[in-house]
Design brief:
The complex is a heterodimer of chains A (79) and B (575).
Chain A lengths: L1 E6 L16 E4 L6 H8 L8 E4 L2 E2 L11 E5 L6
Parallel strand pairs in A: 1-5
Antiparallel strand pairs in A: 1-2, 3-4, 3-5
Chain B lengths: L2 E6 L4 E6 L9 H12 L13 E5 L13 E6 L6 E6 L3 H7 L2 E7 L8 E6 L2 E6 L8 H12 L4 E4 L2 H4 L7 E4 L5 E5 L4 H7 L2 E7 L11 H17 L1 H10 L4 H7 L21 H10 L3 E4 L10 E5 L5 E2 L4 H6 L9 H14 L3 H13 L8 H13 L2 H7 L2 H7 L7 E2 L2 E2 L9 H9 L12 H6 L13 H18 L5 H5 L5 H13 L5 H21 L12 H4 L13 H5 L5
Parallel strand pairs in B: 1-6, 7-12
Antiparallel strand pairs in B: 1-2, 3-4, 3-6, 4-5, 7-8, 9-10, 9-12, 10-11, 13-14, 14-15, 16-17
Helix pairs in contact in B: 1-18, 1-21, 6-20, 11-13, 12-15, 13-14, 16-18, 18-21
The chains are: A mainly beta (79), B alpha+beta (575).
Amino acid sequence: MMLEVRLFAGLHKYVKGTESGEPFEVTTGDGITLAGLLGQLGIPQQEAYVTMVNGQASPVSTVLKNGDRVGVFPPVGGG
Amino acid sequence: MGEILRVDMTTGQIKKEAVPEKYQGLGGRALTSKVLLEEVDPTCNPLGSRNKLVIAPGMLSGTKAPSSGRISVGGKSPLTGTIKEANAGGTTAQKLASLGIYAIIIEGKPADGKLSVLRISEQGAELLPGDEFKGKGTYEVSEKLRAKYGSHIGLMQIGPAGEMLLANAGVANNDPEGNSSRYAGRGGLGAVMGSKGLKAVVVDTQKALDAPVANSEAFGEAAKKFAKILLDHPVTGQGLPSFGTNVLMNIINEAGALPTKNFRKGRFDQANQISGEKLAEVAVARGGKATHACHHGCVMRCSNIYPMPNGKVCAPIEYESAWSLGAHCEIGDLDDVAMLNYICNDVGLDTIEAGGTLGILMEGGVIPWGDGKAAIKALEEVYTGSALGRIIGNGAVFAARAFGVTRVGEVKGQHMPAYDPRGAKGIGVTYATSTMGADHTAGYCITANILKVGGYVDPLKKEGQIDLARNLQIATAAIDSSGLCLFVAFAVLDNPDGLPTIVEMLNAKYGASLTIDDVLALGQQVLRNEREFNKRAGFTKEADRLPEFFLDEESDPHKTKFDVTNDELDSLYNF
């Protein structure tokens, strides 16, 4: 299945050829979890502080569906 | 210990007063709000002689407590008609506290309409003629005053917007490099300062970390422990020092809570182009800085220095400003955003309200959506005092009336900051119920709603939002009084040693024996005082509401409405 992934605030360094915050497509096996996706991309889980699926915070145990929009963030704050 | 400087702008006299019992042990917001409740008629004309401008460094400002250089500026707001405390960084708080000054109370109004500069030094305080600075932007005034007195001065000032008594005029504080960009921005207190004929306050001392401390050994230990707490937390130790506050642009966008095109959408397709990551990349490439401290001793360093193509520098571009001047107006060019931000800093306007107002101009068809150059041209009219310039300078509600716009994201006359209340309902509760009008800092529920700090409360559901907003508003009122930057809350909310260490610092500073409960009680008392002021000014619970369109229209992309009921909102102050 196909996922739309965005990596933010420095995390794009783990996936060669991607740009900060810009979407890229990832092909995975069906039923992959967020943790599985992070593993496939080579992103250490402890650096994925906030993970969002379709704009909602989702734990790494979340099972992903074809076409999901995934955003991965290190710790961020401000205001 | 300490003194209050009372400046009578009617007579030009300055009095040094001992701190009365009722103000002892207070600082920052606790002190400004207490003085206003005690000394100002809440029904007064905000720009008349009966209003007062109160400036107070925080309780820990001027000490070695990390990130403690915050100053509170208070008065009755000409924008909202409520009590107002606007809180800023920069170097002024540390210098005032180092001179033993608890507060400056500026009262009265000069009959001759002349401008003055208040200079405070170790030798005393004096009012000096300021007409030579009339109509000058803050950067020029800063340069001139630093040339005259030295680059060590702390400086607070208003721009032309404040002189023109525009309701969105802010009070600028300098950072250590002299940028007049650390704004006590919200609520129009620059117009209050302008109504007093006060152009600038110069704090002329080399001292910065010399505030009196009762038990310096215990203080040093607690301050060291607190610095470690900040440095150990992922947000305050890594996140903020890497990309600054504008790193929020992408996460709020991803969460679908980034108000775009005057709250029509929750995502901006050019958000990444005006994000903290982009800012850091461009700033560094142009010889600026992705990270920078707004005052000595800040360990979070969330500020930045952004060189613009015209050779000038905007320092910093904060998230809220990049949103209001960017996504809200569908402006996706970071250089245009930087220029708009710079103009606000120079002419003397709050960026959130100014961006909100430019969006209203776009809503009303005065300038096109997304046209950064047209927005710059319109904003520059504030300098000239033209009719359009004055409309812009008076804020979003005023501009909406002028141009027949009914869709305004505001509460109590103050424009909302950078979070859609339907996509992050906790912050919607804060907007509705804050004593200040729509204000994110008053109870920053984005922590638990989106950033996974201090627990997690689903942003799209209403459950838990009232408790979250109540607890954060109480804690914030205490932190705003302490002089600590509110961003310490990211660490304090997650670390059980955080609040006890703040209490240790307060006890060592004052030789007191406060408990955590005492500090929370202080936060509650601040809110009660402010609420009482507003009640006497004529505000009822019916003012604690969001505009109708947030209740009637579904947000994009989450298809949610703001559904916290009025009864639920009215339960916020049940403490």
